[in-house]
């Protein structure tokens, strides 16, 4: 090898080492960034000797990345479900709370029993009515908690729609930049990391199918096949309700004009926080509301009074579902939707608690205590029997088909706790799966600080060797020039 060739080779080596050192320094600077992948240079040999940097590449593993985003979507769905159920449980699911429906029912049973023992005592009469009012209030509170949780789910869905539109807009700009950079041979590895980070964020909202096409072009579809991005970003649409009650049906969440949940959804999504929120808002919460409405309806029926003229018609007694607390005809076949939110103690019995003992709360039913006997307790004992008696419930709601009202309340709380416990288990499971997927992906594509520092030392030695070679060649040339 001639001195000129040796000099050229050493000089190209210095340039290459300098570029590689800069790349390693870049890796070291991003070592704490979990979204950053390891960057490395590919080298190519020069005709006249030496090497040069051919291109900048990065570590990647699409299979592990897909596993990670899938686990992220599953965890997000479980997490929002657990959060929503937990917020409701704090109001209605704690059986140790004195304000829970279960505790209030027990208090009413005890108050009625005490009143039946001393029917002439106005204080025990008022205590029984007060206990009934507390029970009605607990059902009102349950409804408020359920509907507040649905309203909060709507708020989160609206926030999600806005965030997704913003992320998809950024994704489109990055994808275009990556495609141009790929075509022109530029270093686009940082942009690819940023694009992958957006994909990871999006996967928390909805499960994704990701495809990388020719030219580093990426497409995004939901786990049900709806297009999120293909050449251009698709629009995410959602309009939240201002407030919820038991009669309000939630609005559709649309991706690219396609509804992703409910009966009208041709391509329903399967994971992500959107799935969890919609499932809770439109299914779980609606079912739970139905169970409490069933409880309210059963209370109205248990304390109802037969019509004085026709025994086939009954009027609401102690409990009313009318806005003004008036008595209404009890129709067991009518819709019960919203009963738990409307139930209250009848206005007449609030004004005069002895109506509970004597009957005729509605003013249109049988007067049980026709002799106005202060010690009359037959009606109270009958009400106690009704309250503790067996009755039928709507089996489609999942809390049982028969039992006492107390049994049904216990089944409802158990149903809620089972759902909450299952969601908690799902959070734990998917957290573990996600953590392992992230670790595996990081091991293969992430930046290992120890390895980068060792590589930097190797480059330093290479730089010193090339510098020494150039210095030696310079000395040799000087010697030749002195001879000449």
UniProtKB/TrEMBL annotation:
Q: Is Membrane tagged as a keyword? A: no
On whether Secreted is a keyword of this UniProt record, the answer is: yes
Q: Where does this polypeptide localize?
A: Bacterial flagellum; Secreted
Keywords, ordered alphabetically:
Bacterial flagellum, Cell projection, Cilium, Flagellum, Secreted
Give the coiled coil ranges. Answer: none
Signal peptide annotation: none
Q: Name the Pfam families for this protein.
A: Flg_bbr_C, FlgK_D1
Top-rank taxon:
Bacteria
Q: Listed GO molecular functions?
A: structural molecule activity
Q: Which residues form the Flagellar basal-body/hook protein C-terminal domain?
A: 446-483
Q: Name one GO biological process term.
A: bacterial-type flagellum assembly
Q: Which InterPro entries match?
A: Flg_bb/hook_C_dom, FlgK, FlgK_helical
Location of the Flagellar hook-associated protein FlgK helical domain: 88-305
Q: A cellular component term (GO) from this record? A: bacterial-type flagellum hook
Q: Which family does it belong to?
A: Belongs to the flagella basal body rod proteins family.
Q: Which PANTHER family match?
A: FLAGELLAR HOOK-ASSOCIATED PROTEIN 1
Spell out the protein name for this chain.
Flagellar hook-associated protein 1
Q: Which organism is it from?
A: Jiella avicenniae
This chain is encoded by the gene named: flgK
